[in-house]
Amino acid sequence: MADKDEESAMPRDAKIVKSLLKSMGVEDYEPRVIHKFLELWYRYVVDVLTDAQVYSEHAGKSAIDCDDVKLAIQSKVNFSFSQPPPREVLLELAQNRNKIPLPKTIAGPGIPLPPDQDTLISPNYQFAIPNKRPAEPIEETEEEEATIPNPSQEEKVDMQQNPHQRVSFPLPKRQKE
User: Fold this and answer.
1) How high is the mean pLDDT of the chain?
2) Which of 34, 51, 118, 175: disulfide with 114, CB 3.0–4.6 Å?
3) Which of 176, 169, 177, 175 has its CA nearest to residue 122?
4) Which of 173, 73, 174, 166 is nearest to 125 (CA)?
């Protein structure tokens, strides 16, 4: 009963899409499928009629006629769909490709995996360890507190040349048990 009420409240175009789906053997689908087909249908019709109007204006006509619509549909078909190559061409291409034998596999049983250096699980990181010296206790007097201490020239050069030390090491491999 509820199904009959839904169908009577459905627009005519939606009923047509639903009957097309049923005629193609599609029984189970979500209700959004009908809306998507309607959207596609309306967009196609608007594109064809817009093109037909352009063709009509180009020909100097005041209204769109059947020939303009046919021309618009034909141009849509030509640009939207392409014909597959003939069977003979495909067979010739397949024979040429199949002349080259496949490479022999050298992997043993199981799934062949890429080398360790090409995987994301290999260790490929570096630690950046700052080059800090232990702090020396500085005895300050009242006069020195007002001035800002300057690092020596030697420390400046050392900091510019090697701001931090890089360390890299691989993880140990696990033993197979």
Assistant:
1) 78
2) 118
3) 169
4) 166
Handedness of CA 148, 154, 160, 163 (dihedral sign): negative
Q: Which of 37, 46, 43, 48 lies closest to 14 in space, CA to CA?
A: 37
Checking phi first, is residue 113 left (phi over 0); if not, alpha (psi -120 to 50) or beta? beta
19 and 47 in contact (C-beta within 8 Å)? Answer: no
- In this structure, what are the phi and psi dihedrals at residue 88, rounded to the nearest 5 degrees? -60, -40
Encoded amino acid at 155, one letter: E
Q: Which of 22, 69, 25 is nearest to 48 (CA)?
A: 69
Query: 156: which 2 tokens?
Result: 């400046």
For the segment 83-122, what is each residue's pLDDT rounded down to a tens digit? 888 999 999 999 999 999 887 767 677 787 777 777 777 6
pLDDT greater at residue 55 or residue 157: 55
Whole-angstrom distance, CA of residue 88 vs CA of residue 93: 9
Distance in angstroms (rounded) separating the CA atoms of residues 69 and 52: 5
